[in-house]
Amino acid sequence: MASRCIAARWAAHEKAPVPLWLRLRDLIPLLPAAGPYRIDARDVVQAGVSDAQPQLVEALLARIEQGHALLVLDALDETLDRRDAVVEAVADLLDRLPEELDVLVTSRHSCLRSATLLRLPVYELRTPRNLEDTLDQLLSVVAEQLGGPAGTVAWTAERRARIAHSRRAEPDLWRVPLLATLIVLLIAQ
């Protein structure tokens, strides 16, 4: 869910590369039973947009081939027993795509070793020592960056009240640091 939100936010910026989000497990049916495992950009686009109009597929392919896209490849950990095949296919594809192409692969920590085979930078999200304080600092920074009415005490107080309400109404979401961070950013909009 978080990676879909990232892709959606990216899509909202007109100067940003066009995002394409897909679950990596959706590539599994495209892979042969035995290697070598290969996919092409069209496979990725079709897995990401399913039964989309041909014009959309072609437009996304053009953006990918020009390096003006963001591939958000979600949930490497959900590929289970086909993980090695998926990693081999994706690594091969990335070797054939433009260097300028932005790629984000998400996974739980259990797949860190597999993820390194993609030869992409690896970043690990860690839980802050005090999530509540961190999120309040985030809200303050967002208010400062937005300026204008967002920089006022009233604006910040209203957002803090919305955050408190959301914490009470959806406590499970607030237990996941990344989701809590995204909720704060959404409330700050």
TrEMBL record:
Nephrocystin 3-like N-terminal domain boundaries: 51-108
Keywords noted in UniProt: Repeat
UniProt name for this protein: Nephrocystin 3-like N-terminal domain-containing protein
UniProt cross-references to Gene3D superfamilies, sorted A to Z: P-loop containing nucleotide triphosphate hydrolases
Matching Pfam families: NPHP3_N
